[in-house]
Design goal:
Tumor Necrosis Factor Receptor, subunit A, domain 2, eight-stranded mixed sheet, Rossmann fold, about 750 residues, rod-shaped, single chain, alpha/beta, membrane
């Protein structure tokens, strides 16, 4: 066996499907009337170089112009002479091959001689290139459709971060390449890793594959374009690494609904989603094939070898020495009765390929030989380019009842069944491969039918980064659009969109989850506030005390002690002290235009009156004693009336200044959002206050400070008066303490 072990299903079943299709075409009076189609059967051995040699066996006739009909042009395995050789010059089209690498090699030759080719199993996306493989067509969809279906499945499951796994070779590499390309164009899916399995893997190679996949553990979805052996060994390595249930497999049609890749590895394969070109079992072929025997099927030169292997017996006429350990074939054995039989999956597509050529020839016959039976001179020599046009134009219902047609690249439409391998569950079904959807240009996936390990109805995640929470923005990882870090919009920032945080306006603060802004609460000093209680209490007590003193002075107004103390200036001083206590109530009152105006006026008026009275009295004492040292004549302006005029003149400066200020800047209330803008936005408050800055507050009291300093200077000068004059020293003591208090107040006020 130059080609190795006979392939009973992929070889003999498909070959018999072609013969079966030819029988049906030739028996159909409506299809190619008067014309019989024959076939020349050649073994490619699934090797591209050997297939090239076989193709040249009938292409030689085209090179020479006409073949000699010599049977030597036909090569058969083992040197067995052919039963019958078809005239090589009558080959108008080729059905095949199976492997994409073989089809590529053969297509490169056939295009030189304009011979159309239709494959029933080659799915490599490379063959869709109509500039290189212009005479190639296929009745199966290319892997690019399969890759599109897999991208749609990944997106439907909400995955955006997956790895790919491919067997080295045209099928695996081109399949993954198509998946990567489509996912990049569609967007929303990123490839964590693309791993290639060598043709001849070394020991431990698959353990390394699993280890590499675990370098990106969030990419649980694994897109796998691999042969059966590689799939099996990957599953074994996953089990060995104790990662059963971690990976979420999405398998191509090489996995499909096959049992062999997952035999005894079912626990690792649970949840795997696989796809398979939509296919059907052809009942007519089953009836045909199960009635084949050595007597009625001599046209298949490999059938005798199939018979021996299928029934585990030996034929004397097989050309090999009889083996005593194997029984002899009787010829009475029957397929399906004395051996197991299950129709091979590509039988449908072989039949459709034959019918596609037949329908194309029929349309060509109607155009070139209208109304004629059999071949007319116009079709004696078939024009391959014209036949290709008719092939690309065919549209008919195939053997499974689905439409057969080709696009401009010669590809069949993509139609796939989607399966999921599920664990056996008494309440949910028997387990195994369960149909969960279809793909035909668009995906129809029954998500509710999917079952997963863990929570059976919750789709596991395969994402690089989990969605960010409310109030968090995505900080993208450079070069990986599906990966990001979540960064909180902290402080006074809020989330504008999924990528941006911005600061709230000055009068607003963020919501608790930082997804928006809300007005900052406005507060003011209220009558019931704990902060207002002590000042108000002191103000009330001070006002009462001042009122009591005034009342006492009024009651004893004409007594010598009251008159000696300078009752006029004492009343002015007491009025100033009362105003100082009364301003407390204005400071607690709700700010408004009137309240703010009153604050400006009375804040400095009380101290000005007090210091003006004290300054006038101190100055009077100083002048009297200084004048007494030089003469007995009393100094001027020491009468009570003069003292009041001097006091009110000094006070009028403050009043005029405040009035000018009120005219230049009319008073109003403002809300200060900076004063209580705390680190925690929840504690932030706006403060309703008058439009008096700290500087204007000090300016308002500035004149009083000037009077106080001047009064202190005179108090120092008057410190040497006789002991019997008891007013000078208390006034001096008062001014010293007042200066100390003011010196402490100014830096403390501005510093805090």
């Amino acid at each position: 066996r130059a080609c190795g072990q006979l392939k009973k299903e992929q070889g003999v079943h498909r070959l018999e499907a072609m013969l079966y299709a030819l029988d049906r075409v030739n028996a159909d009076p409506e299809l190619l009337p008067g014309v019989r189609l024959g076939a020349r059967l050649l073994d490619t051995c699934s090797r591209d170089t050997y297939a090239l040699e076989q193709a040249l066996s009938f292409v030689q006739a085209l090179i020479q112009g006409r073949g000699d009909g010599d049977e030597g042009a036909v090569r058969c395995p083992g040197g067995v002479p052919p039963l019958r050789a078809a005239p090589p010059e009558r080959v108008v089209a080729v059905v095949g091959a199976s492997a994409s690498s073989v089809s590529i090699m053969v297509a490169n030759v056939l295009r030189l001689f304009a011979i159309p080719q239709i494959s029933y199993a080659s799915t490599a996306p490379e063959l869709s290139d109509s500039t290189r493989y212009d005479f190639f067509s296929r009745v199966v969809p290319p892997d690019s459709y399969q890759a599109q279906a897999m991208v749609d499945i990944v997106r439907a499951l909400g995955w955006n971060y997956v790895s790919t796994l491919a067997s080295e070779g045209n099928y695996g590499e081109s399949g993954v390449e198509a998946f990567v390309q489509i996912s990049r164009e569609a967007g929303g899916v990123c490839i964590a890793q693309s791993i290639k399995i060598p043709r001849e893997p070394k020991p431990g190679e698959f353990n390394k594959v699993i280890k590499r996949l675990m370098e990106t553990p969030n990419a649980r979805g694994i897109i796998i374009f691999a042969n059966e052996d590689d799939i099996r060994r990957v599953l074994e390595a996953a089990r060995l690494a104790n990662l059963t249930g971690h990976f979420l497999w999405v398998g191509s049609d090489s996995w499909g609904a096959k049992t062999s890749p997952i035999l005894n590895l079912e626990d690792v394969a649970v949840g795997a989603i696989t796809i398979l070109p939509k296919r059907a079992s052809i009942d007519g072929f089953d009836q045909y094939f199960m009635t084949r025997s050595l007597e009625n099927n001599r046209r298949n030169i490999w059938f005798a070898e199939f018979w021996e292997e299928n029934f585990n017996c030996k034929l004397i006429s097989s050309g090999t020495q009889s083996d005593d350990s194997a029984r002899k074939c009787t010829g009475e054995e029957r397929i399906g009765r004395d051996s197991t039989y299950e129709q091979e999956g590509k039988v449908q597509f072989v039949i459709d390929a034959v019918y596609a050529i037949a329908h194309a020839l029929h349309s060509m016959h109607q155009a070139l030989c209208p109304g004629l039976m059999g071949l007319c001179p116009a079709m004696e020599t078939t024009d391959g380019r014209m036949l290709l046009q008719y092939i690309r134009a065919v549209r008919f219902n195939g053997s499974a009842g689905t439409p057969v047609m080709f696009n401009e690249n010669g590809d069949a439409p993509g139609r796939y069944d989607i399966f999921q391998y599920q664990a056996a569950n008494g309440s949910a079904g028997s387990g195994g491969y369960q149909a969960v959807g279809q793909w035909a240009e668009t995906l129809r996936l029954d998500v509710e039918a999917l079952q997963w390990s863990g929570d059976p109805h919750e789709v596991p995640a395969s994402q690089c980064s989990l969605p960010c929470g409310p109030g968090e923005r995505k900080k993208m990882v450079k070069g990986v659009p599906c990966c990001w870090h979540c960064e909180a919009c902290d402080g006074y920032r809020f989330q504008v969109d999924e990528f941006t945080c911005e600061a709230c306006p000055g009068d607003m603060r963020p919501t608790r989850n930082h997804t928006g802004c809300r007005p900052t609460p406005v507060v003011r000093l209220t009558w019931s506030s704990p902060w207002a209680a002590p000042p108000l209490l002191l103000a009330v007590l001070g006002s009462m005390a001042t009122t009591t003193v005034v009342a006492t002075f009024v009651r004893h107004n004409d007594t010598p002690i009251v008159r000696a103390s300078g009752r006029e200036l004492s009343y002015v001083l007491l009025t100033g002290i009362f105003l100082i206590y009364a301003i407390t109530f204005l400071m607690v009152a709700e700010p408004g235009a009137a309240v703010c105006a009153a604050r400006r006026l009375f804040l400095g008026l009380g101290t000005t009156l007090s210091y003006s009275a004290l300054l006038t009295k101190t100055n009077r004492i100083y002048r009297i004693f200084e004048q007494g040292k030089r003469s007995v004549t009393p100094p001027p302006f020491i009468s009570p009336t003069s003292q009041l005029v001097i006091t009110f003149s000094l006070t009028s400066v403050q009043v005029v200044g405040v009035m000018a200020w009120l005219g230049a800047q009319p008073p109003h209330s403002v809300i200060d959002y900076e004063e209580q803008r705390t680190v925690d936005p929840e504690q932030a408050r706006g403060v309703l206050k008058c439009d008096m800055s700290d500087l204007s507050l000090i300016g308002c009291l500035g004149y009083s400070l000037l009077l106080m300093v001047t009064c202190t200077v005179y108090a120092i000068k008057a410190r040497g008066v006789p002991e019997t004059f008891n007013e000078a020293k208390p006034i001096g003591f008062t001014m010293y303490t007042t200066c100390i208090i003011w010196l402490a107040f100014v830096p403390i006020f501005f510093g805090t």
